[in-house]
Structures are given as C-alpha cells and as structure tokens.
Amino acid sequence: MPQAAPNIEKLDEHLMEVVRALHSAVKQGVSHSNDSTVVDNTIRDCKEILDVIMAGNVSEWMN
Amino acid sequence: MFTDKIELKDFDKMDPEYKDLLGRVLTIQADCEIGGPHLYVEKMLPAAPTKLDQLIVARTAAEEIDHFRKVARVAGDIGVDVSFVLSQPNEKRFVDAFRGLITTWEDNAVFGFLIDRVGRYQLEEFYDCSYLPLQRILPDIVTEELGHIEYGYNKTVELLSKGDEQKERVQKAIDNWYVRALDMFGRSGSSRAERYRYWGLKRRANEQARTDYMKEVNPILEKMGLKVPDPLKGRHYV
C-alpha cells in the first residue's frame, strides 16, 4: 500500500463537517423562505463558514 | 494500451509514469473543484439577485468543496497532498478559466452554463478509467455538476428574457467564457494527453472532447438567440 499523505484523514473529516454545516444552513434557509430574518441569518452563517474555507488556512483547521 | 483496472493496493506496483500522471490529473482536478468557489463566493454570495439565489450560491460552493474533498482523498491515499490548492491564489490556478474573480451575475450564470459543463466533460474522461478509486467517486460528483449546469442555463435564460440591454451583457459574458471553455480542453495533439489515454486514465484526445463540447453547446446557444463566438479568437491552446 502506498504511504498516504499526512493529515489526509483529518482534512477529509474537517471538510465533511464543513459541507454538512453548509447544507444544513441552506436547508434551514430554504425551508424558512418566508421568514427573512431566518434567511438572512442562514446566509450570514454560510458566508462565515465559506470565508474560513476560502482563506485556506489548512494548518489552523488541522489544529 | 493499458487495459487493467487498478486498486489502491496495486498502486505501488505501477509504472512511475502512471503514478506521475495519476497524481498530476488528481491535483488539477482538485484545483478546478475548489477554483470555482474561489471565483464566485466573494462577490456573488452577497450580491446574488434574490435570497434564494444567495442560498443556491452557498449550496453550489458546498458541493464543490465536497468534490474537492473526494478528489483530495483519492490523491491523499496515493501519497499526493493536494491541500496546497486550498490556499493557492486564483492567479496560480492550473486552468486559466479559474484565474480572476466573477463580479457580475451574468458571468456567474454563464460560468455555470459553460464552464461547469466543461467540468462534466473532464469528469466523463474518467468513466471506466483504469484507477477504480477515482471511478467510484464520479457518479455523485457528476450528478451535482449537472445541477450546476442546469442552474447556470436557467439563470442565463432568465437574464435573456429581460430585454436587449441584458441580452448584450449576456452575449458579452458568453464571448468571454466560451473561448476559455474551449481552452480548458488543452492543446490539440498533446503528447501528454496521449499518455493519459495509453494508461487508461482518459478516454478522448483533447481535440475530440473539445469538438464534442462544441457540438453540444453551439446549438443550445443558437436556440437561445445568442451568437456562437469565433472558436479561435482569443484562444491560448488550439
């Protein structure tokens, strides 16, 4: 078996959590589409999560 | 031609060229998956025309991040660390279409319609490929990419229904992204592409995939009342 890249397991788990959180926020927003406060909050939550991923500080996530 | 099917446990026994090409194609694929959100999240998440569109931008980004995760896992298992692409500035993306930033809704819609469609073509190259762990992650990724393409198409149609001025803006976006889409297939007659095919990692020559794409896209553009751009104007890889 080849030697796996370091931290691949950790990165995989972290990103899986991120994706779950984003999907859950989007679902919440879509199912409360008549309540603009809930929708605004979920969009804000998505932005916060995505900003962290876009910043790409992988070593911070791993810690 | 290499016709065997390879599992992770067989990887160490493979020819160095196979290992090198598989690592390379996975790195580029991972870069393209995360390259999308890096193009549109910053400006389009806050500026999408409706709250529902904002949520769909977030969902699309989530799906692309998940595609990155899956490709990164396949790469990581053979010892190729692709995590550096998560912090790579857009100007350093492997594929030209992912350099820069999407700042208008027309560009965002056309990006989904044309560039995610190239993404689908790239993924289809791996159908029945020789590396089975790569083949296994494809169905879910392709299904989600089809959703991105459909959303991009629907949003483009929606924009076109808003009058001549809007149509001009859409045509401008098409003119920009169409040639970049064609460039994404790489150089015709590429010797590296030939080696990918030899090792069963890709199915078609670059020029064949590009021709198939044009045959699919050009009639759609015409049906939408848009001009098909000159396929050679502004191209980097012919």
Which short descriptors sum up this protein?
heterodimer, A: 63 residues, mainly alpha, 3 helices, B: 238 residues, Ferritin, 7 helices, 0% strand
Please describe what this structure looks like.
The complex is a heterodimer of chains A (63) and B (238). Chain A is mostly helical. Chain A has helices at residues 8-31, 36-55, 58-62. Helix content of chain A is 78%, strand content 0%. The longest helix of chain A is centred in the N-terminal third of the chain and has 24 residues, at 8-31. The radius of gyration of chain A is 15 Å and the shape is elongated. Chain A starts with 7 loop residues before the first helix and ends with a helix. Chain B has 238 residues and is mainly α. Chain B is globular. Chain B contains 7 helices and no strands. At the A-B interface, helix 1 and helix 2 of A face helix 1 and helix 2 of B.
Secondary structure topology:
The complex is a heterodimer of chains A (63) and B (238).
Chain A: H1 8-31, H2 36-55, H3 58-62
Helix pairs in contact in A: 1-2
Chain B: H1 16-47, H2 51-77, H3 105-124, H4 132-160, H5 164-183, H6 191-198, H7 206-223
Helix content of chain B: 55-70%
Rg of chain A: 15 Å
Q: Assess the beta-strand content of chain B as a share of residues.
A: under 5%
Mean pLDDT of chain B: 97
Overall 3D geometry of chain B? globular
User: Quick one: biggest sheet of chain A?
Assistant: none
The shape of chain A, in one word, is elongated
Rg calc of chain B: 18 Å
**How many distinct beta strands of chain B?**
0
- Summarize the amount of helix of chain A as a percent range: over 70%
Instruction: Spell the H/E element sequence of chain B.
Output: HHHHHHH
Biggest sheet overview of chain B: none
Distance between the termini of chain A: 27 Å
